[in-house]
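User: structure tokens for this one?
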Amino acid sequence: MFDLGFYEFILIGFVLFLILPAQDFPKTMQSIVRGVQKAKNGVSSFFAQFSDPMNEFNDIRHEIEKESQEIRKKLKKK
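Assistant:
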């Protein structure tokens, strides 16, 4: 989603270098980098909310599958 690589930052920096005055350029780049970092952290924390319940759900599903296999084996023996 917010996967900006090295070349994208270079392109953004070059365009801002052409547009902005020299004294504003470093502050602007720092604020852009901070904004991207906050966005990445926000997205990762958002998806982290769902990973714990999904892991728990997968654990329960695996337990049910194991138990169903055991029941099938017992039924085949009879």
